[in-house]
Design brief:
The chain is of the alpha/beta class and about 325 residues long. About 45% of the residues lie in helices and about 20% in strands. Strands 1, 2, 3, 4, 5, 6, 7, 8 and 9 form a nine-stranded mixed beta sheet that branches. Helix 2 crosses helix 10 and helix 4 runs parallel beside helix 12.
Length: about 325
């Protein structure tokens, strides 16, 4: 009886094993849950271009934007678990969206973590019209003008939104937080002076700082960013403990064979080890993930830590599903 059971199990498992061994035998689709042209899209294309060398197959980028990335990510949650459709998720899509949006999927149980990717550090920036040259001066100006201060964010329930709430609690005053539908309209209104300040991912905004079109006060990391070593950390500048970034990561549909996940993980790690890739990440103001946190298990642990950190904070701040 035991032998018969073993034979049946082997027969049922055989096709899956064979497909994992043969993987990939055709092109792979990498979904980017945002419109083309942004930093995430550029990151995905640079990664895919190098991963194809390790996998021996073309990786096609498909931009599926909308609803804070949840439309594109949702497609993967409902995808076939064979490794031929994967997604560039983030701490926004895989953590915060679960509180801020009504989702038709579970951000944890409907996905297989593959590997952590380069992250976006955050900067505290303002228009040049704000009369402050340091974070300490900005804090003093905010406290003196809290009723008139406005802060833009790229969307409701995002890390940028939460950065504003955390700053308000740290300073003991409140001001108006204005959510936009994406980075482009927020950037346009910041440049035109429609609001005063932002806590924003550095990727698209660091060039504006370099061109002196806006002013940067601090990076919300424990150490200075390799992409902007001249900008002090929030710890150094006057807001100790304000550590925020958006991590990116590859995910596959739940049930994707571990052998397939491992092949994708190895290809991504090889791509990120390329010196030219690392150089380009610095140019894009992205920070490479720690070399000892590139396993699927490490990504799952990172997501779990962020869920335990952010979900209670968001709910306490009154963030509800929309």
């Amino acid at each position: 009886m035991r032998m018969l059971l073993a034979i049946v199990v082997a027969i049922l498992a055989g096709p899956g094993i064979a497909s994992a061994q043969d993987y990939p035998s055709r092109p792979i689709t990498m979904v980017v849950p945002y419109p083309p042209g942004g930093v995430t899209d550029t990151l995905a294309r640079l990664l895919a271009d190098r991963m194809k060398n390790a996998l021996g197959q073309t990786i096609v980028i498909e931009n599926v934007g909308g609803a804070g990335g949840s439309i594109g990510v949702g497609r993967i949650a409902r995808g076939t678990p064979d490794g031929y459709t994967i997604v560039v998720g983030s701490s926004e899509t895989q953590v915060l969206n679960a509180v801020a949006l009504s989702l038709p999927y579970d951000v944890v149980t409907d996905f297989e973590p593959v590997v952590q990717l380069p992250a976006y550090p955050f900067m505290i920036v303002s228009t040049n019209a704000v009369p402050a040259s340091t974070l300490a001066e900005l804090i003093a100006w905010i406290k003196a003008n809290a009723g008139k201060v406005t802060q833009g964010t790229v969307g409701y329930g995002t890390i940028q939104h939460m950065c504003g709430i955390i700053m308000q609690k740290a300073l003991g005053v409140t001001w108006q937080i204005v959510p936009y539908r994406g980075g482009a309209p927020a950037m346009q209104d910041l440049l035109s002076g429609q609001f005063n300040l932002m806590c924003t991912a550095s990727g698209s905004f660091l060039p504006l700082v370099r061109a002196k079109q806006i002013r940067a006060y601090a990076i919300t990391m424990g150490t200075r960013a390799e992409s902007a070593p001249d900008i002090p950390t929030a710890d150094e500048a006057g807001l100790p403990g304000l550590h925020l970034l958006t991590w990116n990561a590859l995910y596959a549909p739940k049930g994707t064979p571990r052998a397939v996940v491992d092949k994708l993980n190895a290809a991504a790690r090889q791509a990120m080890a390329d010196p030219a890739f690392k150089k380009r990440m610095i140019e894009l103001a992205l920070e490479m993930p720690p070399s000892d946190e590139l396993t699927p298990e490490a990504l799952a642990a990172l997501q779990k830590r962020d869920i335990e950190k952010w979900w209670p904070l968001m709910k306490a701040a009154g963030i509800k599903q929309q």
